[in-house]
Amino acid sequence: MSDSMFRDLRGRDMAVDLGTANTLVYVRGRGIVLNEPSVVAVNVKTGQPLAVGLEAKRMIGRTPSYIQAIRPLKDGVIADFEICEKMLRYFIHRVHARRWVKPRMVICVPSGITGVERRAVQEAAEFAGARKAHIIEEPMAAAIGAGLPVQEPTGNMIVDIGGGTTEVAVISLGGIVASQSVRVAGDELDDAIIQYIKKEYSLALGERTAEEVKITLGSAWALEEELTAEIRGRDLVTGLPKTIITSTEEIREAIEEPVASIVDAVKVTLDKTPPELAADIMEGGIVLAGGGALLLGLPERLQAETGMPIRVCANPLQAVAIGSGQALEEIDSIGDILFSSPSH
Ligand code: ADP
Ligand code: MG
Q1: 72 lines ligand 1 (CB under 6 A)
Q2: What local confidence, expressed as pLDDT, does residue 15 receive?
Q3: Which ligand approaches the C-alpha of residue 323 most closely?
Q4: pLDDT tens across 133-188, in order?
Q5: Ligand 1 close to Cβ of residue 294 (< 6 A)
Q6: Where is 189: in which H helix or E strand?
Q7: For residue 337, what pLDDT band results from cuts at 50, 70 and 90?
Q8: How far apart (Å, rounded) are the C-alpha atoms in residues 99 and 154?
Q9: CA of 138, closest atom in ligand 1
């Protein structure tokens, strides 16, 4: 095979970050080419998907009864395998126009999923056109994407806070030494806001509004300047639209319980970390990735509770895709060492 032909084939290999909130696709030699919410809108009468990704996410809470906006990976596990497979296939086909060249694929999945689900994802990818699908553990991919020296004999701690799960891991010499995966992450914060506003104001908020409130007003630590803002929902007493005024203090109180669970997951992992590696982390700090890392005041909160230096990685929403992509770029030289076996 000529060099140019080989390069052409190589260019088709891809890495997929199958996240509970967002799916990203990285194509070898090109970088991230797709970044869409992990949502599928389905016609429940026919079972046919009507929209996938951003278009489907816009429909959440706005669909007539025969359309359902489904998140196939809710709560850190594959809630709907069939839809998950359809979504994966749709995304792969969108970036992989030439079907006769079967790409190799690296797929990053939440580490909370079972061995059976892992194999199923692998099969779905192969069914969708992959020649071979390698599975990479999410915290490993996040750590690589955050630029941590995972192959060195030094302790690296990564905390990846996604939509459905928070993954905490200590990595040294290319392996995970201690880890913790909890099903508390961005979605739980949204839910906590919905519950709080319902209880305090008898106001019903949609999922998407709650997420916006979290992003604009949510925090895990007192802010230098606390803000107030209006939020709109449906009055549960009158059934009519209503606007209330809330504050960053109030939203912080609303999300306190899930935030505390995330902080606990970090503490528990630190507690399980061998002393030499803990000393390395004391020096290098804990690195945050995933969309949840953008919650205001989270670094301050974690620093206060763990005494460790905390830093948010450069592209928290893309770290896993970048890391999976990097593993893909190096797949020929390093082989399979970063990938986990399906039975793991
Ligand atoms: P996943 O890997 O599970 O797909 P992501 O890493 O893509 O998840 O992160 C998505 C989560 O991050 C969502 O819950 C989203 O609401 C949350 N998020 C995104 N931006 C922010 C922000 N600025 N502040 C707080 N949470 C955020
Ligand atoms: Mg993720």
Answers
A1: no
A2: 95
A3: 2
A4: 999 989 999 999 999 999 999 999 999 999 999 999 999 999 999 999 999 999 99
A5: yes
A6: helix 186-201
A7: low
A8: 42
A9: 2
- Chain centroid to Cα 182, Å, comes to 13
> Is 324 touching ligand 1 by the criterion CB < 6 Å?
no
In the numeric block, which tokens belong to residue 272? 């399980």
Q: Using one digit for the tens of pLDDT, what is the confidence trace for 106-133?
A: 999 877 678 888 888 888 888 877 888 9
Cβ contacts of 278 within 8 Å, gap of 6 or more: 155, 270
Residues 6+ apart with CB under 8 A from 4: none
Q: Find residue 182's DSSP bridge partners.
A: 166
CB 273, CB 155: distance < 8 Å: yes
User: To 10 degrees, what angle do helices 256-271 and 298-306 make?
Assistant: 40
4: number of Cβ within 10 Å = 7
Residue 71 is predicted with a pLDDT of 93
Query: Which residues are near ligand 2, the ion (C-beta closer than 5 Å)?
Result: 19, 162, 320
Atom of ligand 1 nearest to the CA of 38: 4
Q: What is the pLDDT of residues 253-263, one digit of tens each?
A: 999 999 999 99
Q: Name residue 284's amino acid.
A: G
CB atoms within 10 A of CB 183: 17
Residue 249 CA to ligand 2 center (angstroms) comes to 28
Q: β-strands 104-109, 14-18: how paired?
A: parallel
Closest by Cα among 107, 96, 111 to 132:
107
Rounded-to-integer distance, Cα 158 and Cα 178, Å: 11
Q: Which atom of ligand 1 is least distant from the CA of 186?
A: 14
| Two structure tokens written together for 7 | 């390069």
| Tokens at 18, concatenated | 């199958």
Six token digits for residue 329: 């770029």
